[in-house]
Amino acid sequence: MSLKALIQLFAEKFLVNKKGQVSSFASPAIDRSVEISTGWNGTNQWADAITAPFDGWIRVEGVCSGSVYLDVSPYQNQLRQGSYRDFGLVSCVCRMSKGARINYIFSTGGTISERKVLLIPTNGSTT
What we know:
Radius of gyration: 19 Å
Strand content: over 45%
Distance between the termini: 41 Å
Order of helices and strands: HHEEEEEEEE
Structural class: alpha+beta
Helix content: 10-25%
Largest sheet: 4 strands, antiparallel
């Protein structure tokens, strides 16, 4: 067996064993995004925690009249992402794994309007 054939065999076996994990790294299926309704804590704070229904991405955004900090934390994979703006649109996008608990919080001195949470599955994920 040639070295090239042996390397290809190992690569195929690796991908077969990691098929579920590799599919979650696929690109987002933008045309299949789902907008969800979430809790509301008042004009200058908005926070909630959800459970990811599938592998993919979460996008949290809002428009604020004052300085704002947005923090998105998918607990299961220990990834936190934050964004700060003086005012206007603030948005964060993070990977999520099916079943992961995701927390997000907006804190602002102004008011929050046009808030939105989008869940975007990856191509190949089972929903």
